[in-house]
Amino acid sequence: MADLSDVERMVDDWERDAVAKSQRYAEMQERVEQISITGSVAGGAVSVTVGPNGLPTDVGMTDAVLRMRPDEIAANVLRAMRKAQSQYPDRMREIVAGTVGDDDASRHIVATAEENFPPAPEEDEEPAAEAPGRQLRIETEAEDEPPAPKPPRRPEPGGAGEHGRRRRGGGDDGDDGDDGDFGEDQTFLRRD
């Protein structure tokens, strides 16, 4: 059976290790909160900075974007953001290794960063420019969408009504059809 002093020493060691580990994780958190990574594309014309959670905190552009079409600018912003985010797992790996070391929790932290921010796709620095002017877009319609409503038909001259019949006088609503309110070329709004 273990001596009481050995048990006390084990508890003291465990407590000291727990305090040290807690301090290392606090240092890791502090360093993670300082993360700021910038990715730039298009020869530096577009840059995006991401913060500690990998979300953009700043977008910068030079005058070179004035020569780009709006869709090129948008594509370059996304490319720069992905470029910055792709560096996030490596930065997390460095911070984790320098603070808490290698354990199950630190491996999980890095794996989560790799899942959320995969490497940037391999691309040429300058995307191939599309020919200005015409663009062809092919879209498919969802089957759940109702068909577009048909435009209303104009009444034919000669008084064809809504159901294709001309209204004649003698109906039971007391309208004799001769009061001039709805002439052949008139709408329900009276013209004078």
Notes on the structure:
This protein has 192 residues and is mostly helical. Helix 1 (4-32) packs antiparallel against helix 3 (88-99) and helix 3 (88-99) runs antiparallel to helix 4. It is built from 4 helices and 3 strands; from the N terminus they run H-E-E-E-H-H-H. The chain has helices at 4-32, 70-86, 88-99, 104-116; strands spanning 37-41, 46-50, 56-61. A 3-stranded antiparallel beta sheet has the order 1-2-3, covered by helices on one side.
Spell out the helices and strands N to C: HEEEHHH
CA-atom Rg in angstroms: 36 Å
| Tally of DSSP helical segments | 4
Shape: elongated
Query: Ends: how far apart?
Result: 115 Å
Oligomerization status of the protein chains: single chain
Task: Describe, in short, the structure shown.
With 192 residues, the protein is mainly alpha-helical. The chain is 37% helix and 8% strand. The protein is elongated.
List keywords for this structure.
4 helices; mainly alpha; 192 residues; 3 strands; single chain
Q: What is the fold's blueprint, element by element?
A:
Blueprint: H1 4-32, E1 37-41, E2 46-50, E3 56-61, H2 70-86, H3 88-99, H4 104-116
Antiparallel strand pairs: 1-2, 2-3
Helix pairs in contact: 1-3, 3-4
